Protein backbone atom coordinates (compact mmCIF):
# COMPACT_ATOMS: atom_id res chain seq x y z
CA UNK A 1 0.00 0.00 0.00
CA UNK A 2 1.39 3.39 -1.02
CA UNK A 3 2.01 6.09 1.53
CA UNK A 4 -0.51 8.36 -0.24
CA UNK A 5 -3.26 5.70 -0.17
CA UNK A 6 -2.60 5.01 3.50
CA UNK A 7 -2.92 8.72 4.33
CA UNK A 8 -6.19 8.93 2.37
CA UNK A 9 -7.67 6.05 4.37
CA UNK A 10 -6.60 7.62 7.66
CA UNK A 11 -8.15 10.94 6.67
CA UNK A 12 -11.38 9.22 5.66
CA UNK A 13 -11.51 7.38 8.99
CA UNK A 14 -10.98 10.64 10.87
CA UNK A 15 -13.73 12.27 8.80
CA UNK A 16 -16.15 9.47 9.70
CA UNK A 17 -15.30 9.75 13.42
CA UNK A 18 -15.68 13.55 13.31
CA UNK A 19 -19.04 13.28 11.52
CA UNK A 20 -20.36 10.70 14.00
CA UNK A 21 -19.23 12.87 16.91
CA UNK A 22 -20.99 15.90 15.43
CA UNK A 23 -24.17 13.87 14.95
CA UNK A 24 -23.89 12.51 18.48
CA UNK A 25 -23.15 15.71 20.40
CA UNK A 26 -26.29 15.34 22.54
CA UNK A 27 -25.66 11.81 23.77
CA UNK A 28 -24.78 11.71 27.45
CA UNK A 29 -25.75 13.29 30.76
CA UNK A 30 -26.32 17.04 31.17
CA UNK A 31 -26.52 19.29 34.23
CA UNK A 32 -29.10 22.00 33.56
CA UNK A 33 -29.23 25.53 34.97
CA UNK A 34 -32.91 26.45 34.67
CA UNK A 35 -34.85 29.72 35.04
CA UNK A 36 -36.16 30.76 38.50
CA UNK A 37 -32.93 29.58 40.17
CA UNK A 38 -33.82 25.91 39.68
CA UNK A 39 -31.69 23.11 38.25
CA UNK A 40 -32.39 20.02 36.21
CA UNK A 41 -30.86 16.95 34.61
CA UNK A 42 -31.05 15.53 31.10
CA UNK A 43 -30.05 12.10 29.81
CA UNK A 44 -29.94 11.47 26.07
CA UNK A 45 -29.36 8.01 24.62
CA UNK A 46 -30.21 6.41 21.29
CA UNK A 47 -34.01 6.74 21.02
CA UNK A 48 -34.39 7.61 24.72
CA UNK A 49 -34.58 10.91 26.62
CA UNK A 50 -35.04 11.36 30.40
CA UNK A 51 -35.55 14.66 32.19
CA UNK A 52 -35.67 16.05 35.72
CA UNK A 53 -36.96 19.64 35.70
CA UNK A 54 -36.70 21.59 38.94
CA UNK A 55 -38.71 19.37 41.28
CA UNK A 56 -40.06 15.83 41.23
CA UNK A 57 -38.21 12.82 39.90
CA UNK A 58 -36.66 11.89 36.57
CA UNK A 59 -39.21 11.00 33.92
CA UNK A 60 -38.94 9.78 30.32
CA UNK A 61 -39.80 12.28 27.58
CA UNK A 62 -42.30 10.29 25.54
CA UNK A 63 -42.44 12.48 22.42
CA UNK A 64 -39.44 14.42 21.17
CA UNK A 65 -37.74 15.47 17.97
CA UNK A 66 -33.99 14.99 17.66
CA UNK A 67 -32.03 16.43 14.77
CA UNK A 68 -28.28 15.79 15.14
CA UNK A 69 -27.21 18.15 17.92
CA UNK A 70 -30.68 19.56 18.64
CA UNK A 71 -33.51 18.21 20.77
CA UNK A 72 -37.03 19.64 21.11
CA UNK A 73 -40.25 18.66 22.87
CA UNK A 74 -43.29 20.14 24.59
CA UNK A 75 -43.72 20.32 28.35
CA UNK A 76 -46.29 21.82 30.70
CA UNK A 77 -44.53 23.67 33.53
CA UNK A 78 -46.45 24.91 36.54
CA UNK A 79 -45.11 27.93 38.37
CA UNK A 80 -43.96 27.46 41.98
CA UNK A 81 -46.71 27.77 44.63
CA UNK A 82 -49.42 28.10 41.97
CA UNK A 83 -52.97 27.17 43.10
CA UNK A 84 -53.88 23.55 42.40
CA UNK A 85 -56.60 24.56 39.94
CA UNK A 86 -54.30 26.85 37.95
CA UNK A 87 -53.46 25.20 34.60
CA UNK A 88 -49.80 24.66 33.77
CA UNK A 89 -48.77 26.60 30.66
CA UNK A 90 -47.17 24.66 27.82
CA UNK A 91 -43.73 25.42 26.44
CA UNK A 92 -41.79 24.31 23.41
CA UNK A 93 -38.38 23.41 24.82
CA UNK A 94 -35.39 23.34 22.49
CA UNK A 95 -31.83 22.34 23.43
CA UNK A 96 -28.75 22.55 21.22
CA UNK A 97 -25.44 20.90 22.12
CA UNK A 98 -22.08 22.30 21.14
CA UNK A 99 -19.12 20.52 22.67
CA UNK A 100 -19.50 20.44 26.45
CA UNK A 101 -22.15 23.18 26.52
CA UNK A 102 -25.90 23.12 25.98
CA UNK A 103 -27.98 26.15 25.07
CA UNK A 104 -31.71 25.93 25.70
CA UNK A 105 -34.87 27.93 25.29
CA UNK A 106 -38.43 27.48 26.52
CA UNK A 107 -41.02 29.24 24.37
CA UNK A 108 -44.59 29.67 25.67
CA UNK A 109 -47.65 29.57 23.44
CA UNK A 110 -47.58 33.36 23.62
CA UNK A 111 -44.75 35.57 24.75
CA UNK A 112 -40.96 35.68 24.45
CA UNK A 113 -38.65 32.69 24.84
CA UNK A 114 -36.80 32.10 28.12
CA UNK A 115 -33.22 30.87 27.86
CA UNK A 116 -31.28 28.42 30.01
CA UNK A 117 -28.04 26.44 29.77
CA UNK A 118 -26.45 23.08 30.45
CA UNK A 119 -23.07 21.44 30.97
CA UNK A 120 -22.09 17.93 29.90
CA UNK A 121 -21.26 15.59 32.76
CA UNK A 122 -18.32 13.19 32.81
CA UNK A 123 -19.08 9.46 32.94
CA UNK A 124 -19.69 8.00 36.40
CA UNK A 125 -16.44 6.62 37.84
CA UNK A 126 -15.97 2.96 38.65
CA UNK A 127 -17.44 1.66 41.91
CA UNK A 128 -15.01 2.75 44.64
CA UNK A 129 -13.37 0.39 47.10
CA UNK A 130 -14.60 1.97 50.32
CA UNK A 131 -12.16 -0.04 52.43
CA UNK A 132 -9.33 1.92 50.83
CA UNK A 133 -10.90 5.35 51.33
CA UNK A 134 -9.22 7.62 53.89
CA UNK A 135 -11.48 9.98 55.86
CA UNK A 136 -10.28 13.13 57.59
CA UNK A 137 -10.95 14.45 61.07
CA UNK A 138 -14.63 14.83 62.00
CA UNK A 139 -16.26 18.23 61.48
CA UNK A 140 -19.22 19.07 63.71
CA UNK A 141 -21.59 21.00 61.43
CA UNK A 142 -24.15 21.97 64.11
CA UNK A 143 -22.96 23.38 67.44
CA UNK A 144 -26.24 22.75 69.29
CA UNK A 145 -26.54 26.42 70.31
CA UNK A 146 -27.34 28.52 67.25
CA UNK A 147 -27.34 28.55 63.43
CA UNK A 148 -23.69 29.51 63.14
CA UNK A 149 -22.36 27.99 59.90
CA UNK A 150 -25.83 27.70 58.36
CA UNK A 151 -28.11 30.00 56.35
CA UNK A 152 -31.42 29.76 54.53
CA UNK A 153 -31.00 29.15 50.82
CA UNK A 154 -33.70 31.63 49.80
CA UNK A 155 -34.05 34.74 51.98
CA UNK A 156 -37.38 35.64 50.37
CA UNK A 157 -39.07 32.61 51.97
CA UNK A 158 -40.34 32.28 55.54
CA UNK A 159 -37.75 30.99 57.99
CA UNK A 160 -38.99 28.20 60.25
CA UNK A 161 -35.51 27.16 61.49
CA UNK A 162 -34.40 27.67 65.09
CA UNK A 163 -32.44 25.94 67.84
CA UNK A 164 -34.23 24.66 70.95
CA UNK A 165 -32.61 22.63 73.72
CA UNK A 166 -29.68 21.65 71.53
CA UNK A 167 -31.90 20.58 68.61
CA UNK A 168 -32.11 22.09 65.13
CA UNK A 169 -35.86 22.55 64.55
CA UNK A 170 -37.92 23.41 61.50
CA UNK A 171 -41.50 24.48 62.20
CA UNK A 172 -43.99 24.86 59.35
CA UNK A 173 -47.78 24.45 59.01
CA UNK A 174 -47.40 22.26 55.92
CA UNK A 175 -48.87 18.75 56.18
CA UNK A 176 -49.12 17.68 52.54
CA UNK A 177 -46.54 16.42 50.07
CA UNK A 178 -46.78 19.25 47.54
CA UNK A 179 -43.58 19.91 45.62
CA UNK A 180 -43.26 23.51 46.78
CA UNK A 181 -43.66 25.23 50.13
CA UNK A 182 -43.55 28.76 51.56
CA UNK A 183 -40.85 27.96 54.12
CA UNK A 184 -37.09 28.06 53.56
CA UNK A 185 -34.59 25.26 53.17
CA UNK A 186 -31.35 25.44 55.14
CA UNK A 187 -27.77 24.94 53.94
CA UNK A 188 -24.27 24.96 55.35
CA UNK A 189 -22.05 27.90 54.55
CA UNK A 190 -19.24 25.43 53.84
CA UNK A 191 -19.18 23.25 50.74
CA UNK A 192 -17.82 19.74 50.45
CA UNK A 193 -16.75 17.15 47.90
CA UNK A 194 -16.83 13.49 49.02
CA UNK A 195 -17.46 12.59 52.65
CA UNK A 196 -19.08 10.44 55.29
CA UNK A 197 -21.96 12.11 57.15
CA UNK A 198 -23.70 11.15 60.39
CA UNK A 199 -26.98 12.79 61.41
CA UNK A 200 -30.00 12.14 63.61
CA UNK A 201 -33.56 13.22 62.84
CA UNK A 202 -37.06 13.09 64.33
CA UNK A 203 -40.41 13.62 62.63
CA UNK A 204 -43.65 14.67 64.37
CA UNK A 205 -45.90 11.75 65.37
CA UNK A 206 -49.16 13.59 64.64
CA UNK A 207 -48.60 14.00 60.86
CA UNK A 208 -45.55 11.85 60.18
CA UNK A 209 -43.70 14.29 58.04
CA UNK A 210 -41.17 14.60 55.29
CA UNK A 211 -37.79 16.22 54.86
CA UNK A 212 -34.51 15.44 53.14
CA UNK A 213 -30.74 15.73 53.44
CA UNK A 214 -29.10 16.87 50.20
CA UNK A 215 -25.51 15.77 49.66
CA UNK A 216 -23.36 18.50 48.03
CA UNK A 217 -26.67 20.31 47.48
CA UNK A 218 -27.47 17.80 44.71
CA UNK A 219 -28.63 14.40 45.94
CA UNK A 220 -31.56 14.14 48.38
CA UNK A 221 -31.55 11.31 50.88
CA UNK A 222 -35.18 10.92 51.90
CA UNK A 223 -36.09 11.69 55.53
CA UNK A 224 -39.38 10.05 56.54
CA UNK A 225 -40.40 7.58 59.25
CA UNK A 226 -41.33 3.92 58.93
CA UNK A 227 -45.09 4.27 58.53
CA UNK A 228 -45.40 7.71 56.96
CA UNK A 229 -47.93 8.28 54.19
CA UNK A 230 -45.47 10.88 52.94
CA UNK A 231 -42.82 8.39 51.85
CA UNK A 232 -41.92 10.34 48.77
CA UNK A 233 -40.88 8.18 45.86
CA UNK A 234 -39.00 5.41 47.63
CA UNK A 235 -39.26 5.65 51.41
CA UNK A 236 -36.87 6.39 54.32
CA UNK A 237 -33.19 6.43 53.39
CA UNK A 238 -33.88 6.47 49.64
CA UNK A 239 -32.03 8.62 47.19
CA UNK A 240 -35.14 10.46 46.06
CA UNK A 241 -36.38 9.20 42.71
CA UNK A 242 -33.03 7.51 42.01
CA UNK A 243 -32.23 4.61 44.33
CA UNK A 244 -34.76 2.53 46.28
CA UNK A 245 -33.60 1.11 49.63
CA UNK A 246 -33.36 -2.65 49.96
CA UNK A 247 -35.87 -2.47 52.83
CA UNK A 248 -37.66 -0.06 55.17
CA UNK A 249 -35.40 0.41 58.21
CA UNK A 250 -37.27 3.44 59.55
CA UNK A 251 -38.59 3.82 63.10
CA UNK A 252 -42.08 4.96 64.12
CA UNK A 253 -42.85 8.69 64.01
CA UNK A 254 -41.68 10.65 67.02
CA UNK A 255 -38.54 8.55 67.62
CA UNK A 256 -35.00 9.71 66.93
CA UNK A 257 -33.46 8.00 63.92
CA UNK A 258 -29.79 7.72 62.97
CA UNK A 259 -28.52 7.92 59.42
CA UNK A 260 -24.99 7.48 58.09
CA UNK A 261 -24.31 8.42 54.48
CA UNK A 262 -21.13 7.90 52.46
CA UNK A 263 -20.61 9.71 49.15
CA UNK A 264 -17.50 8.71 47.18
CA UNK A 265 -16.94 9.03 43.41
CA UNK A 266 -20.66 9.62 42.76
CA UNK A 267 -21.57 6.41 44.61
CA UNK A 268 -23.78 6.43 47.73
CA UNK A 269 -24.04 4.16 50.74
CA UNK A 270 -26.82 4.69 53.31
CA UNK A 271 -27.05 3.04 56.74
CA UNK A 272 -30.34 3.80 58.49
CA UNK A 273 -30.66 2.92 62.19
CA UNK A 274 -27.72 0.54 61.87
CA UNK A 275 -29.06 -1.25 58.77
CA UNK A 276 -27.46 -0.82 55.35
CA UNK A 277 -30.22 0.05 52.90
CA UNK A 278 -28.13 1.36 49.95
CA UNK A 279 -24.78 -0.28 49.26
CA UNK A 280 -22.28 1.79 47.25
CA UNK A 281 -24.69 2.46 44.36
CA UNK A 282 -24.03 4.92 41.49
CA UNK A 283 -25.93 8.21 41.38
CA UNK A 284 -26.90 9.07 37.81
CA UNK A 285 -27.65 12.74 38.44
CA UNK A 286 -29.12 15.38 40.74
CA UNK A 287 -32.50 14.88 42.38
CA UNK A 288 -35.57 17.14 42.46
CA UNK A 289 -35.25 20.35 44.44
CA UNK A 290 -31.45 20.41 44.25
CA UNK A 291 -29.40 23.59 44.56
CA UNK A 292 -26.81 22.35 42.10
CA UNK A 293 -26.68 19.89 39.21
CA UNK A 294 -23.01 19.82 38.17
CA UNK A 295 -21.48 16.69 39.71
CA UNK A 296 -17.96 18.03 39.22
CA UNK A 297 -18.53 20.82 41.75
CA UNK A 298 -18.54 20.74 45.57
CA UNK A 299 -21.69 21.73 47.42
CA UNK A 300 -23.27 22.21 50.86
CA UNK A 301 -25.20 19.95 53.16
CA UNK A 302 -28.73 21.16 52.41
CA UNK A 303 -31.81 20.43 54.52
CA UNK A 304 -35.36 20.42 53.16
CA UNK A 305 -37.47 22.79 55.23
CA UNK A 306 -40.27 23.66 52.80
CA UNK A 307 -42.19 20.52 53.73
CA UNK A 308 -43.26 19.51 57.25
CA UNK A 309 -41.85 19.95 60.73
CA UNK A 310 -38.60 18.11 61.36
CA UNK A 311 -35.84 18.09 63.97
CA UNK A 312 -32.13 17.33 63.50
CA UNK A 313 -29.10 16.93 65.75
CA UNK A 314 -25.54 15.55 65.83
CA UNK A 315 -24.37 16.45 62.33
CA UNK A 316 -20.80 15.15 61.97
CA UNK A 317 -18.99 15.09 58.63
CA UNK A 318 -15.66 13.43 57.78
CA UNK A 319 -14.28 14.55 54.40
CA UNK A 320 -12.53 12.14 52.07
CA UNK A 321 -8.78 12.72 51.83
CA UNK A 322 -7.56 12.18 48.26
Descriptive account of the structure:
There is one protein chain. The protein is mainly beta and 322 residues long. The relative contact order is 0.17. Mean pLDDT is 89; it is low at 5-22. It contains one helix and 23 strands. It folds into two domains: 26-120; 130-321, Exo-inulinase, domain 1 (Jelly Rolls), CATH 2.60.120.560. The chain starts with a helix and ends with a strand. The strands form three sheets. Strands 4-3-2-1-9-8-7-6-5 form a nine-stranded antiparallel β-sheet, with no helix packed on it. Strands 10, 11, 13, 14, 16, 19, 20, 21 and 23 form a nine-stranded antiparallel β-sheet that branches. A hairpin with a 3-residue loop joins strand 17 (211-215) and strand 18.
In DSSP terms (H or I, runs of 4 or more residues), the helix count works out at: 1
DSSP summary, beta strand count: 23
CATH superfamily of the largest domain: Exo-inulinase, domain 1
> Architecture of the largest domain, according to CATH?
Sandwich
**How much is the average pLDDT?**
89
Beta percentage is: 35-45%
Question: Which blocks of ≥5 consecutive residues have pLDDT under 50?
Answer: 5-22
CATH fold annotation of the largest domain: Jelly Rolls
